[in-house]
Amino acid sequence: MIITPTKDWWEPKTKMGFTNGQHEEKSTRASITSGQAWPNLAWAKEMPSASLPTPVWNGLTETSPAVSMNASYRYRLGSVGFVIDKVKVVIDSSVVEEGATDGEIVVYGPNVMKGYHNRPEDTQATMTPDGGFRTGDRGRLDQDGFLYITGRLKEQYKLENGKFCFPVSLEEEICLVSFVQQAVIYGLNRPFNICLVVPDFDVLKNYAKEKGLPTDIKTLVARQDVIDMIGNAITHQLKGKFGGYEIPKKFLLLSEPFSLDNGTLTQTMKLKRKIVLDKFMDQIEALYK
């Protein structure tokens, strides 16, 4: 069994369960994903010939550490699984907008911590009076008890029209587009969302060669025809899955990926959203003019 905390193992040289291109079928029975969300159909997209079962689990340090899981005998694509034995999940809709079908995920059970050591204010902010742990995640339960994570409360924002957007959900879906390596959604108090896109440079270069375009990345990301092509692919990917108001209307293509070296990712490879937005704010403002 192998735990896969990031997307890095998708690269050919580090594919999970493979050694020198050979699948270790005798020793590897399953893989567990953790550490970040697993986009829908990512397995089929990245490793279409692989047959290794890959259940998706959900949990936190404060829940020691599991809350829900998919299993070979019971799973649902797009969910983080069913709530495990002796654990209870409540969806608190009082902390989200009226009429929403989801809410904050609150976890109860013997696995839930009693509180943070010597941090009474943090404990009071995250623990309910009856011992539940407020995860900070937005989610919903379906009629069969499968849990879906729909966003993070602290990352949600309102557009100018008052409607809520959840950038992470949009970004994960956008990254399923073959031309996209990384994406950042922005639209706080704005009339519409825009999207910062780091293209998959290899895919983009191949496209340029096929179309007889220059293959220099800085030149390509500045071309309006390339921006429109990638923007249309993203729009097509999002239609029918998100509200029209959520789908970005304009796009900014970047010539450098987000990374540890340029200070846009944390040590755990999470996006430093504020730093990214501050860095490109002049170009973002230009998209709204």
Describe this entry's structure for a reader.
Helices cover 23% and strands 23% of the residues. The protein has 289 residues and is α+β, with helices and mostly antiparallel strands. It has 2 domains: 83-153, Luciferase, domain 3 (Roll), CATH 2.30.38.10; 156-287, GMP Synthetase, Chain A, domain 3 (2-Layer Sandwich). The strands form 6 sheets. It has a 4-stranded antiparallel β-sheet with strand order 8-9-10-11. It has a 3-stranded antiparallel β-sheet with strand order 5-6-7, with no helix packed on it. The longest helix has 15 residues, at 224-238. The chain is globular and about 60 Å long.
What is the secondary structure topology, with strand pairs?
Elements: E1 2-4, E2 18-19, E3 22-23, E4 31-33, H1 42-46, E5 57-59, E6 66-69, E7 82-83, E8 88-92, E9 103-108, H2 120-126, E10 133-141, E11 147-152, E12 157-158, E13 164-165, H3 167-174, E14 180-186, E15 194-199, H4 201-211, H5 217-222, H6 224-238, E16 250-253, H7 273-279, H8 281-287
